[in-house]
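Course assignment 3, question 2. Fill in each field.
Student: A.L.
Task: Predict the tertiary structure for the chain below.
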Amino acid sequence: MSLNEGWSRWVVLAVLVSSSTGCGRSEKPPVEYGTLPGLRQTHEARLREELCRLEAEKATPVLLDGADRAAEVQELLERILPRQRLALALRRVEKLYPRGAFEFDPVGLEQMLLVREQLDGVLRQYRAVFDSDEFRFEVSFVAGLLADLSFVDHARLVHRLEAMDAARPLVAGRLHEAIAPLERMFRIDARLAAVRHVVPRLAGAELRAETLRVLEAVVQHPQCTAALQRRCLQLLRAQLADWPSDALVWIGDRAVGLHAYEMVRSGDVLSLLTLQEIREKRERMELDAFVRAMTTSVDADELFYLQAMRQLIEACDEPFHVRKKTLEAIGDRLRLLEKTPRYPLFAATVLLPDMTEGHQAQAEDRARCEAWAIVLAAAADGAVPAFETNPVSGQPYRIARDDRQVEVSEIDGPSGGETARARIAGVARGAAADRPRR
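Answer field:
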């Protein structure tokens, strides 16, 4: 799933809230919402119990907050590349960056390398920051939808510049020179995936898929050796050993949801809709009724949301193919309530849509890394790691091997087409192109 789908809502809304001066959007400091003043005044006993649990778990916006660190990181990154220059650099790179396999025609390669050379000074400054073992990304949860997430764009730019750094040695057959940028790409992926917020977590998954396409270009190269395969395997094992719990991002997402309910209580409902949604509701003459419905049932709505999120967070102990049943059960409850006064309008229309896609993206991210670890271990050493079940499908990994290559197919499920494939080192490229026997 691309970041441009589903959970990009948080990015769109953050831009709308922070840039808008009209449409009834509030000028209140976001920190006030982060302390949950409205929730603390509720007379709904079950909602107060939920608040007590969240405080005990240190899971409210204030108790999760990383505002100071987030501000430091943002200031540091903007000194390297201010926002307008960052947007321009990203557009230039986007036009040239390969969307599928990490392959280039001669003209495309030279165009890309020219942009890389022009941004060399910028990349050196980024590396001075990102190469530090102490560096990490952070989000201000007391800012809720106003949290500055532009560090994701900085990370994306650096990530693709590092990939460009791997391109020339790959084309020239100097594969060992591609390992350092590959390692830096994996480091960015891991740091994004460790942030307790949906947007950087799914951006980390998306970028890690790009990293694996660079890795694929290395290990499928006819000059790739068993030693290089083992080095790539080490990088993957490091990613898997440091894998954050899926629950962390949804704990953070719930904190953003709590902040959003405070905006509803304060009359900022329009700030939680995209401009397109506002236009559509106005055209259907239902905007005022929609706002009233949200604000009059906010306690019951938030209670449903918090109970659903607690179920989902607890279900994160299970792999996605099992967890999916919990997601489906919540969807079923929403459908049953849809034509009743108890329908949680805000949870159903703003906070819970695309939840399944977000959980699946996490599972696919993990499955890709496990599949490539299986392939590289089998190709380099003949041993297969103990990853038996694909977390997306719940089925055993589909492994095929012969004396030419190793392949894991259907990484993203039976209806998907993702495949990890590596040649057994020393086998000629023409022979390796044959499909392994099943």
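Instructor remarks: Residues 360-432 form one domain. Residues 1-8, 14-29, 428-438 have pLDDT under 50 and may be disordered.
Grade: pending
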